[in-house]
Amino acid sequence: HEDELKNINYQKLTYPDDLPENQEYITLLLKGAIANFSMDKRYFHKKGRIVWVTITVSLVRDDDAQPFYFISIVRDISLQRQIEDELGKSQERFRILFNKSNDAIFVCRYAGQFFEMNDMACDKLKYTREELLNLRLEDISNIQEVNERIDLYEKILTRQKAVFEIDLYSKSGEIIPVEASLHSFLMDGHLTVLSV
Predict the structure, then answer these.
(1) Helices assigned H by DSSP within the chain
(2) Are the C-beta atoms of 107 and 117 separated by less than 8 Å?
């Protein structure tokens, strides 16, 4: 109720870990260093649960330029935070599965530039992830020969799946013959190739 809130200060409602940042902003407002501020923070609900909010706060001063009162706009973002948290957990689960695979997995653009690979791909070719991100598929394989043999690029463009034999080259120059399974699809508007 409104009367209850009038008798509770924001420090009591605020989750302890969020208080220092909140109080720092309040201090800057009072000093006149900033005109307003926005931040995400946690409040304690009357029933004890945590509510995530975005607050936007400004300070009204009186005719003598002394602090008079604060205006705070509070928006509940609990659902948004919950979705972000669940998405983060889902991405972490995917990352674990991706990297625990016994197969080397590469993801690249149609032009051949790598933008993702799993740990097994790095281990097998003896490159770091950062090194592979600066290479193209043709730098570590005989992809051009494979294309001449089975018209691979046409399969990619028409989004057909393909299974083929290809030689991969490790950082030391070792030739590693593998059977690859390739699938192309659109991701973020780009033709993308997944190879296992």
Answers:
(1) 2-6, 10-13, 19-31, 78-100, 119-125, 129-133, 143-150, 152-157
(2) yes
d(CA 180, CA 178): 6
As a whole number of Å, the CA-based R_g of the chain is 28
pLDDT in tens, 56-78: 999 999 999 999 999 999 999 99
As a whole number of angstroms, the distance between CA 54 and CA 37 comes to: 10
Q: Tell me: the pLDDT tens digits for 133-180?
A: 999 989 999 988 888 878 887 877 787 788 889 999 999 999 999 999
Q: pLDDT band for position 120 (50/70/90)?
A: very high
How far is CA 5 from each of CA 9, 55, 124, rounded to the nearest angstrom? 8, 16, 62
Count of C-beta atoms within a 10 Å radius of residue 41:
20
Which one-letter DSSP state was computed for residue 1? -
Q: What's the longest Cα–Cα distance across the chain?
A: 84
Please provide the distance, in angstroms rounded to a whole number, between the alpha carbons at the two ends of the chain: 59
Report d(CA 194, CA 177) in Å as an integer. 18
- 77 residue type, one letter: I
Instruction: Give the span between the Cα atoms of 73 and 58, in whole angstroms.
Output: 9
Q: Is 190 exposed, middle or buried (0-12, 13-18, 19+ CB in 10 A)?
A: exposed
> What element of type H or E holds 164?
strand 162-169
Model pTM?
0.57
